[in-house]
Amino acid sequence: MFSILLIIIYIAFISLGLPDAILGSAWPSMYGDLGVPVSYVGIVTVIISVGTIVSSMNSGRLIARFGTGLVTAVSVAMTAAALFGFSVSTSFYMLCLWGIPYGLGAGSVDAALNSFVALHYKSKHMSWLHCFWGIGASAGPYIMGFFLVRNFTWNKGYQAIQMLQVVLAAGLFLTLFLWRKAEGKAENGGRQEKAMKLDQILRIRGAKKMLAAFFCYCAVEATAGLWASSYMVLHKGIDVQTAAKWASLFYLGITAGRFISGFIADRLGDRNMIRLGQAIGIMGILVLLIPAGNTPVFVGLIMIGLGCAPIYPSLIHATPDTFGPENAQAIMGVQMAFAYVGATLMPPLFGVIAERVNIMLYPLFLFLIMAGMIHLVESAGRVVKSEDVREIG
After folding, report:
1. Where in the cell does this protein reside (predicted)?
2. 153 in the Ramachandran plot: left (φ > 0), alpha (ψ -120 to 50) or beta?
3. What DSSP character marks residue 205?
4. Whether the predicted pLDDT of 172 surpasses 50
5. How far apart are CA 117 and CA 298, in angstroms?
6. Which residues, 6+ apart, have CB-to-CB distance to 253 below 8 Å?
7. Does residue 302 contact residue 245 with C-beta atoms inside 8 Å?
């Protein structure tokens, strides 16, 4: 039963990734039909991000009350409804309205699945889980492109992905008994999860630094991915087509890295996987600075992606060990909310820097945030460890 549930979780994470990148691939066709400037995509993404942050912050209390299975099923159903709303939108305001359940659903299912896997499965499954997200995120634009190149409208692409979400939601509702059984075993084992408020979470030793570390990680990932092509074109003088292809190497590095990480995560442990990823990421950023033509950019982006690969899954999986299983679910939702805030705020901040100073600061910007994350993770680990020593003494 438990192995069947794991397969369902993997499929659910593919589904979670499917809608994440389709707005960007569909927007060149959408904004003209909706009669708005191309820049308005930022408004939609902010609405989705705010919904995601809100639902992540409250996911711990929802899961504690209703259970992981029901929260996941309802969240996927909300996402499916939102995608249907996108597909029938005839105005930009309708799109914004449907962006609200889109974000709320995505945040809850992300937090619910991550916390469940962290609490019930080994570290390798967390790495593979996020690898499956990468598969979904890569497949979404492909599905949208499949319809667009065949002269269908973007609406059809959204409808196709929405139908996949409907099928998954139905499957989740039909298998709720598996989730209840798994969570019942955990409760019988003596673990009681707490529903905690934000101020309670912030008072836990090391929590603030770890929340800031999640902010920094997603700031690095989102900024690196969004600005890679622009950095190559505007600073390195690489042609647009090549830059677009090379930018995808960053995401390829993340997806491949998470697949590889699954085979070594249990042996190395979460903390060593985090350190390994940080070291590779820092080296990749430094490679970008080598003045030896375009090859360092090609290599550097792959290395940054490979470095990012194990960090986020390992940080999440380490949460129960770091803060206790009874606190993990509540803390994890807030961690993800901080991660979304970092992904939302920092890429636009670098955009301002690139416009007013110079885009050549791209590697330096990434280096400073990565270095800050390393300091925060290590510092949080020392704080928690010293607290454990005092309690034992």
Report:
1. Cell membrane
2. beta
3. T
4. yes
5. 34
6. 301, 302, 303, 304, 305, 306, 307, 308, 309
7. no
Q: Where do the structural domains in the chain lie, given as residue ranges? A: 2-188, 198-392
**10 Å Cβ neighbour count for 246?**
20
- CATH superfamily, with its number, for domain 198-392: MFS general substrate transporter like domains (1.20.1250.20)
Among candidate residues 130, 111, 106, the one with its CA nearest the CA of residue 52: 106
Contact (Cβ atoms closer than 8 angstroms) between residue 44 and residue 165: no
137 φ/ψ angles, rounded to the nearest 5 degrees:
-65, -30
- Whether the pTM exceeds 0.70: the reply is yes
Write down how long the chain is: 393
Cβ atoms within 10 Å, residue 45: 16
* pLDDT for residue 271: 92
Across 1-15, 275-289, 348-362, least confident range: 1-15
In the chain, what's the furthest Cα-to-Cα distance? 70
The CATH number given to 2-188 is: 1.20.1250.20
Fold match between domain 2-188 and domain 198-392: yes
Query: What tens digit of pLDDT does each residue of 206-239 get?
Result: 889 999 999 999 999 988 887 888 888 888 888 8
- What's the angle, vertex CA 50, arms to CA 74 and CA 32, rounded to 5? 95
- Estimate the crossing angle of helix 68-88 against helix 154-174, to 10 degrees: 160
Which residues have a Cβ under 8 Å from the Cβ of 278 and sit 6 or more positions away? 307, 311, 370, 373, 374, 377
Q: With the CA atoms of 386, 390, 392 and 393 taken in that order, what torsion angle do they form, in degrees rounded to the nearest 10? A: 130
**Helix (H, G, I), strand (E, B), or coil: what is residue 196?**
coil
Pair 2, 117: CB distance under 8 Å: no
String of DSSP letters for 85-154: HHHH--SHHHHHHHHHHHHHHHHHHHHHHHHHHHHHS-HHHHHHHHHHHHHHHHHHHHHHHHHHTTT--H
